[in-house]
Amino acid sequence: MRFANRFNFNVDEELYTAFCDPEVHQALDEKVSRERIGQEVDLMISSDRPLQAIGLMCEVGIFHIVFRLPDTLLELPPFDLRNACLGCLINLDSLIHHHFDGMRHTAADLRLARYAAITAPLRNVRYECERRHRPTPVTRHVLQNELRMNSKTVDSVYAVHEASIEFQFLMHLGLNNIDRLRVADILRKVGPLWKLGMMTALITEMYPAKTSRTYAEALDTIPDEFERPERMIVANYKLLQNTIESLKLEGVWDMKPYINGEELMQLLPKLPRGPKIGDVSDGLITWQIQNPDKSVSEARCWLVETFAQYK
User: Fold this and answer.
1) Which site among 22, 23, 185, 217 is 20 to 30 Å from 268 CA-CA?
2) How far apart are CA 57 and CA 20, in angstroms?
């Protein structure tokens, strides 16, 4: 599959029949290591044409073996999971080619965006993890346990998913009701990946772009343009992005309090040591976000006035 994808070859009819053979599926499930499966998937996702490879997986019936779900699900995944996942990947590629072609992205960003897209339908599905003894996102299981992905990438995909849920909530609130502090909180959690979070939110709200071919055939075209309703959704998310950018919160995820712990104790000598110092520092960060034009000296005055009981 990967070489057909890499070299853009048609899949031979006999080979395609073998791909569909239940005995081959069973051998893949039982005899091929998850490390090897994860390596092959990563090469496909990182290629120039991931849709052919993932689409072929769905077409021949092995998607559920590759992206295997745990048995202890606490919520039901989408009814037609494989096509929901493929649809999000199609939407991502269509967005990149037709609507966000000017957006700068590295190969690493694109790889991360594709993993976030293909697992996006599982964002709200959890399972009972015996090791953690608490509900755990299914996405973590699929990426870490089934595809053997490193923890840093898994954490990044999870952060993108969490941000996408928050961005959808903002969109449904309406652009006129966007709160600077709430946006800053989202950005501080997801960091510089926030635009991937927004794009992931967007692709889950649309029907898949049209795909009128079998994935056994070589692909020479990019996914089709969206229909008018989907184009309107894209336009609304572009307005959301512009609104967030107008708040000038770029880099807020690296923001540090103006006053460090040592100076804080000098200003507020009666402040209890321990968690309370962190609470005051968090309050100062909130004040800085709400008052971006204020100076360090004004921050000192605010601290002394707000926490006068600790002077």
Assistant:
1) 185
2) 10
